[in-house]
């Protein structure tokens, strides 16, 4: 790598509440993962998560206002208030401290948590995730009497997102009340890297279905009064996973390296240039573009595990390196699918164990 890799920072004079809040949320969530296996590391994560939240809340501002260079690439379109709510909810879950939930309730209206009816979840727009986490607290009864009404408003917005994916919100809510579907059944939000919205929807829908099941609630209530079963929510999540893995009109797995047919010309520098072990020749930025980017052959390196941007609203996909809207690989496409695969693997394992137990009991009865 010979091009400039300049690092940037946010501080009191150049705030970045969105990026600091998101990092606080990630560290708080990760601290829960490592709590048993590495308690020292978990404590360190949680300590810094709380520090980052205090910084993000105390010195408010968008990171793309402080660092102008990111505006053309990763602009903070939703602002920073969704990340502050997101961080507070994860910190509440990780610490159990009531002050974090008070923050989410007190700022619900001003920060848009109970105002925005959202149909997408992404690296930028966190509101749907905020609303689902808040709804979990309501379903579990983890709140005071004074907080209940605000959490019910959060849940109403969470179920708007769920129903939008199901296509069940009343059309009186406008053409944006529901998420479009491709002919093959893929949730469709927008042209550039639509697969991020598909994998995130699968994760959020599956999570909410679990929350409903844990609370013994069988349905969600959609705008206009229509209801949908929790099983239907889980089934849609599974259908989106299956679409990604090849159950689609083209029979293409958009998870690179999986299945018989997957993207071969991923828009990814390292995947599209010959490995060093095969050629010791220096390949700079311009050489990579001039000699490798435009080649029609498959990438010399298979980027196993990457999920590309995916097809358009009519399930069409053009497997070309220069078609970056469809062939670029992003970590935020794959991340939610890791959670989905973990859950589906656990479900499959539990089903095998149930069948084995049934078989053993049947054999014992015959004996």
Characterise the protein shown here.
Its EC number is 3.2.1.4. InterPro entries: 6-hairpin_glycosidase_sf (IPR008928), 6hp_glycosidase-like_sf (IPR012341), Glyco_hydro_9 (IPR001701), Glyco_hydro_9_His_AS (IPR018221). By secondary structure, the protein is mainly α. Among the domains are: 89 residues, no CATH class; 130 residues, no CATH class. The protein is built from 13 helices and 4 strands. Strands 1-2 form a two-stranded antiparallel ribbon. A two-stranded antiparallel sheet has the order 3-4. Helix 1 runs antiparallel to helix 2. 42% of the residues are buried. The model has no long low-confidence stretch (mean pLDDT 94).
Write the layout of secondary structure elements.
Elements: H1 17-33, H2 39-58, H3 63-66, H4 81-95, H5 98-106, H6 127-140, H7 145-166, E1 180-181, E2 187-188, H8 195-215, E3 219-221, E4 227-229, H9 230-244, H10 269-272, H11 285-293, H12 324-327, H13 331-366
Antiparallel strand pairs: 1-2, 3-4
Helix pairs in contact: 1-2, 1-4, 2-4, 4-5, 4-6, 6-7, 6-8, 8-9, 8-13
List the quaternary state of the chains.
single chain
Low-pLDDT ranges: none
Q: Which class best fits the helix and strand makeup? A: mainly alpha
Sheet with the most strands: spatial strand order? 1-2
EC number: 3.2.1.4
GO molecular function, one term: cellulase activity
Pfam families: Glyco_hydro_9
Enzyme class: hydrolase
């Amino acid at each position: 790598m010979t091009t400039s890799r300049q690092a940037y920072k946010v501080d009191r004079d150049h705030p970045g509440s969105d990026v600091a809040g998101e990092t606080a949320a990630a560290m708080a969530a990760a601290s829960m993962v490592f709590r048993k296996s590495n308690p020292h590391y978990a404590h360190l994560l949680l300590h810094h998560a709380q520090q980052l939240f205090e910084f993000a809340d105390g010195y408010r501002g968008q990171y793309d206002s402080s660092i102008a260079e990111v505006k053309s690439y990763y602009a903070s379109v939703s602002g920073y208030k969704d990340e502050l709510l997101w961080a507070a909810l994860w910190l509440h879950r990780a610490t159990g401290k009531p002050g974090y939930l008070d923050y989410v309730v007190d700022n619900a209206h001003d920060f848009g948590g109970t105002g925005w009816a959202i149909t997408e979840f992404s690296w930028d727009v966190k509101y749907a995730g905020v609303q689902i986490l808040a709804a979990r607290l309501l379903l579990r009864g983890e709140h005071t009497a004074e907080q209940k009404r605000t959490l019910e408003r959060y849940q109403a917005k969470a179920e708007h997102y769920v129903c939008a994916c199901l296509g069940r919100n009343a059309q009186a809510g406008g053409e944006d009340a529901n998420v479009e579907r491709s002919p093959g059944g893929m949730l469709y939000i927008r042209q550039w890297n639509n697969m991020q919205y598909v994998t995130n929807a699968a994760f959020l829908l599956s999570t909410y279905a679990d929350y409903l099941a844990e609370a013994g609630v069988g349905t969600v209530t959609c705008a206009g009064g229509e209801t949908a079963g929790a099983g239907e929510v889980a089934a849609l999540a599974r259908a989106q996973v299956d679409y990604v893995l090849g159950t689609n009109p083209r029979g293409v797995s958009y998870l690179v390296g999986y299945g018989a047919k997957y993207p071969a010309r991923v828009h990814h520098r390292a995947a599209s240039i010959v490995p060093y072990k095969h050629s010791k020749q220096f390949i700079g930025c311009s050489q990579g573009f001039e000699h490798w980017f435009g080649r029609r052959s498959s990438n010399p390196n298979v980027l196993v595990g990457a999920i590309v941007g995916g097809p358009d609203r009519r399930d069409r996909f053009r497997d070309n390196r220069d078609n970056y809207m469809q062939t670029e690989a992003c970590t935020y496409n794959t991340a939610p699918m890791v959670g989905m695969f973990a859950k589906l693997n656990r479900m499959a394992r539990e089903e095998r164990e149930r069948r084995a137990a049934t078989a053993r009991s049947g054999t014992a009865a015959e004996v």
